[in-house]
């Protein structure tokens, strides 16, 4: 059984930082795509960042470019999201998603194309 387990969420003041982790179990995603999405109450799910593995260039949503960094440790089967300069509008539940195959750039923002999802971790940024 494949599971994605997010951790690292919490409450932080504006301007602060958090590091989210997503540990995969049940299979490896070395050659696949691992991504982060977020969803705030009353809003649609939003693409945050993606790592396509195998040296592929990381991709970011426009609202987080320059502030968030996605990285992956294949030995630990874990993907991270380093979030700096946090803003109140970053408040949301953050979800890890994974696909066993390497996705093309134009597909990364489509949540329906991912094979697996985590349960989410809440990030709250106070002003």
Please characterize this protein's 3D structure:
By secondary structure, the protein is mainly beta. It has no helices and eleven strands. Strands 2, 4, 5, 6, 9, 10 and 11 form a seven-stranded mixed β-sheet that branches. Strands 1-3-8-7 form a four-stranded antiparallel β-sheet, with no helix packed on it.
Q: β content, as a range?
A: over 45%
H-E string: EEEEEEEEEEE
Q: Indicate the multimeric state.
A: single chain
**Strand count:** 11
Low-confidence stretches: none
Quick one: overall form?
A: globular
Mean pLDDT: 95
Radius of gyration over alpha carbons? 13 Å
Class by SSE composition? mainly beta
Characterize the biggest β-sheet: 7 strands, mixed
The CA-CA distance between the termini, in Å, is 40 Å
Give helix % range. under 10%
Number of helices: 0
Main attributes of the structure:
127 residues, mainly beta, seven-stranded mixed β-sheet, four-stranded antiparallel β-sheet, 11 strands
Sequence-ordered SSE layout with sheet pairings:
Layout (H helix, E strand, L loop, with lengths): L2 E5 L2 E4 L4 E8 L7 E7 L6 E6 L7 E2 L7 E6 L4 E6 L8 E8 L16 E2 L3 E6 L1
Parallel strand pairs: 2-11
Antiparallel strand pairs: 1-3, 3-8, 4-5, 4-9, 5-6, 7-8, 9-10, 9-11
């Amino acid at each position: 059984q494949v599971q994605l387990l997010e951790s690292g969420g919490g409450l932080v003041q504006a301007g602060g930082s958090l590091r989210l982790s997503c540990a995969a179990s049940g299979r490896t995603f070395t050659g696949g795509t691992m991504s982060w999405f977020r969803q705030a109450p009353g809003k649609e799910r939003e693409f945050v960042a993606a790592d396509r593995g195998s040296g592929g260039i990381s991709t970011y949503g426009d609202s987080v470019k320059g502030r968030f960094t996605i990285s992956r440790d294949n030995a630990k089967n874990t993907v991270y999201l380093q979030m700096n300069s946090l803003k109140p509008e970053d408040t949301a539940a953050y979800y890890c998603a994974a696909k066993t195959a390497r996705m093309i750039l134009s597909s990364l923002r489509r949540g329906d194309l991912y094979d697996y999802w985590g349960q989410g971790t809440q990030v709250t940024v106070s002003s």
